[in-house]
Amino acid sequence: MCQKLFGVAEVDVTLLRPEPAGHIVTQGGDIDNRIKTLLDALKVPDANQARPEVVGVLESPFHCLLEDDNLITRLAVSTEQL
Q1: CA distance 11 to 38
Q2: Tens digits of residue pLDDT in 38-47
Q3: Does residue 16 form part of some domain?
């Protein structure tokens, strides 16, 4: 999605966890930190972020889902036990 095309994204996430209900915040990191990591992985890296090392031929063009995570207009998160 990109701003030039007026694209936006809505994201639905089901977070599978090994902990029983009620323990997701106390073990393995908060939900918000887990979701932030996921959303950061969906966007093009900033200039000050580490670039992935590519072995062999570089993909051209290099595709990411989002130009910027500011294009996410809705986020729904649910959790379930594995």
Answers
A1: 11
A2: 888 888 777 7
A3: yes
